[in-house]
Amino acid sequence: MELEPQVFRRALTLSLVGGLSTAIGALFVVLNPAPNLKMLGLLQGFAAGLMLSISFLDLAHNALNAVGFLKGNLWFFAGVLFFGFIIKFIPEPNLTPQADPSEKKADDDSGGSGKDMMRKHRRQVLFSGIITAVGISLHNFPEGMAVFLGSVKGLHVGLNLAVAIALHNIPEGVAVALPIYFATKSKWYAFCLAAGSGLAEPLGVMAVAFLFPSSLNPEILEGLLGSVGGVMAFLTLHEMLPLAFDYAGQKQAVKAVFVGMACMSARLVPLGDQPTKGDKLVALQL
Question: Which of the four pLDDT bands, split at 50, 70 and 90, describes residue 266?
Fold first, then answer.
């Protein structure tokens, strides 16, 4: 399977849409410094449902059918282990909104010490926001690689991944912009840093496109997509669901997860019976 130029352009466009959705989260903060966290939690739960359906009902399912049960599972859990390993070296983003430093004024009677504590707290909040931005950027890099591999398989796979990742990235944009805005009082700086944290996703596309071989066996592509399913499943269970539970509550978040799964399953129905380009190539080789 040769890499066509339109595949790269498609993957880059989808990754830009997914990555820059952090800017939407930043807009929540710029327009309203106290965003509705329950709504963000429901959105995160809905995105988790989309991601789980893509991981198990599309990517892993197709890998099992294409390369066999044993190899398909090995590819899937290789993706799980890969992301579980690299996440140890990624700074853990703080997705809990910070308290407004201006609220600390009432707690300090002395002027000098109060201002010193204010400046210290602002520095701490700013550092927290920067670490969150770095962590989210590093998280977005493998997501861009996943969108690229999905786009190689077909437009519907890349689009499904991009939509789920975009919804997932909106609360991440809030997590970056909120502490930056509270620390600097600059809406523009908060927006730019949050939006910039999503640009690591198209960088992931460019990196894997550079390393991508000129031709790839369809069986290996299906295996790699199975690994992408493992990465997405790990990301969902490790990050998205806990955040949805914290923001929206367990019962409401679980409902949002199943709504997301139902929506993605309905989207996959008309695609399930259609042979993909990879399937046709495998059939031709046989």
Answer: confident
Note the Cα 140 to chain centre separation in Å.
Answer: 6
Residue showing tokens 């820059």: 20
| Under 8 Å between Cβ of 53 and 264 | yes
Q: Which DSSP state fits 87?
A: G
Out of 91-100, 124-133, 238-247, pick the least confident.
91-100
Angle, CA 239 vertex, CA 129 and CA 229 arms, to 5°: 130
Q: How far apart are alpha carbons 263 and 62 in whole angstroms?
A: 19
pTM for this structure? 0.72
Distance CA 13, CA 10 (A): 5
Cα separation, 14 vs 158, whole angstroms: 7
Q: Are 186 and 106 in contact (CB under 8 A)?
A: no
For residues 158 and 201, give the distance between their C-alpha atoms in angstroms, rounded to a whole number: 13
Question: Number of H helices and number of E strands within the chain?
Answer: 13, 0
